[in-house]
Write a structure and sequence with these properties.
This protein is of the alpha/beta class and 242 residues long. Helices cover 32% and strands 17% of the residues. Strand 2, helix 2 and strand 3 form a beta-alpha-beta unit. The structure holds manganese (II) ion.
């Protein structure tokens, strides 16, 4: 049994298939996907529908899935008394959320979601609603924490369950920091192109018991990555061309 991890597919269905072909999952293998499956890239629903057919995929939630779950039921709803009340609230929190989601590339997700029949839409909402906040695995006696962004407002004494979802999916990991002596944290969310002292920008970055695996699949000259925790082997799609 081997354990693989991927993150930030961002609707890049073809890159996803390319990497899946490279890692050739066996039935006994596991593939953890650390969120941000959707938005920005062209085929978010194709990515999700493929994941839904793969029993060995274990999905973890990212900030884009959080935005999707907060906004989509509202956007697809009819105008009801309740939705009008939501719009009428003084702070109009739902509008802020929709604007934030728009700023973060929601259009391909909404377009493709709209093309699904009602039953598939419900299946997708149910599936994404079950993504976990984080996962812990031990491979070759090394402990790994798998989480989308990192541990915001970190404190060594803080229990993992005491982190808020925002702290896990939005706040960027500090790759200069060794969070734990005995646990390696695997994160997405921050493209490794943006890690200041990364000598291999756009490829998997390892430092201080951190592994950063978002290689910017939806950005020009970025790529989708996977890592095998058993061997440390890295797998990459072809580069993204705009
Ligand atoms: Mn993210």
């Amino acid at each position: 049994m081997a354990v693989y991890v991927m993150s930030d597919i961002h609707g890049e269905y073809e890159k996803f298939i390319e990497v899946l072909e490279k890692i050739t999952l066996k039935d006994s293998d596991k593939l953890y996907i650390l969120g941000d499956t959707m938005d920005r890239g062209p085929h978010p629903m194709k990515v999700l529908l493929k994941m839904m057919q793969m029993p060995n995929v274990i999905p973890i939630i990212g900030n884009h899935e959080v935005m999707f779950m907060e906004c989509m039921p509202f956007l697809m709803g009819e105008i009801t008394k309740e939705s009008l009340e939501a719009l009428d609230e003084l702070d109009a929190e739902i509008l802020d959320k929709i604007l934030t989601w728009q700023y973060n590339g929601f259009l391909p997700t909404i377009k493709e979601f709209r093309g699904l029949d009602t039953e598939k839409q419900k299946d997708v909402l149910d599936y994404v609603g079950e993504f976990t906040a984080y996962e812990e695995v031990t491979v070759n006696r090394v402990n790994y924490l798998l989480v989308h962004a990192g541990l915001g407002n970190f404190s060594p004494e803080k229990e993992l369950d005491d982190y808020t979802l925002d702290e896990l999916v939005w706040e960027r990991a500090d790759y200069e920091m060794k969070y734990f002596e005995d646990t390696v944290i695997v994160t997405g969310h921050t493209p490794t192109q943006l890690i200041y002292d990364n000598p291999r920008k756009g490829y998997i970055y390892r430092n201080n018991n951190n592994i950063a695996i978002d290689c910017g699949a939806c950005f020009e000259n970025g790529r989708l990555a996977a890592i095998c925790l058993d061997t440390g082997e890295e797998f990459y799609s072809s580069d993204k061309k705009l």
